Amino acid sequence: MKNSFVFWVEEYFYNPTPFQKIFSYIFLPLSWLYCLVMYTRFLVQQPHYFGIPVVSVGNLTVGGSGKTPLVSSLAASYKNAAIVLRGYGRETKGLYIVKDREEILCDVTQSGDEAMIYAQKLPNAIVIVSEDRKSAILKAKELGADVVFLDDAYSKHSIEKLDLLIEVQSQNNFCLPSGPFRERLYVQKNAIVLEEEKDFKRVVTLKDRCDKMSLITAIARPQRLDAYLPEVVSKNYFADHHSFTKDECIEVLRRDGSDSLLVTYKDFVKVQSFGLPLSLLDLDVEVSKEVIDIVGKYIENKN
After folding, report:
1. Are residues 208 and 233 in the same domain?
2. Is this prediction's pTM over 0.90?
3. How far apart are CA 281 and CA 265, in angstroms?
């Protein structure tokens, strides 16, 4: 089950109790130092153009914000798009081509869960995981991509790109370690902040619904799902990017007497091979025409 410390940290970052706020203030000197270091890092880096338009979708805070469905929606409009991401939770290091235009080339343990979502949902896209985004962009260009979408790369200030930032609401507005913010939106940074319901809307589809379903999920801040959940027998939260075992899943089904496990796509790619009954809570987004036009004009001007 979800590590209690991880759950405590998520609460501390986004909805702190009065006791947790004390820790925020204790860590403020470190937070100020962290902010200064990150701002200095931003100032000394010069963006470099790699000969291909690059669009980054990210957020300023730690944890999930819906980047994956937003990247998927934007990239689906292009025939020769590549998705580049770090590949959190994978058991590999270095650059891996998860998918070329024709087929998926590795399994989810090598790619990480988010990369496998892109590989399965975007049949025409190239998907690459790499800690070094620059080398991955060059590889995508070598493979024939016309545009690269970066998942979570606001902080890569040495890459010339269009930055889209998903606004995340939090009752704690401090930088790490006092709060969830990894960086600030610098005035010198030309980034576009996207608001849910204004710039994009969630579209949720429940597939293979059963009468008795048990939710298992390994996403950051899983309470975000509550607004979209049908009635479930139980909610079982695991740490973000957790690698499920078949025994864990069987135990939930046995304990609850459920007909199926309800999972998000991020969980689905890790448990689909177990041969267990699954119901899928598939979360997509519809992007506003204004945002689509901004991205389209940027890509057109760079080509």
Report:
1. yes
2. yes
3. 7
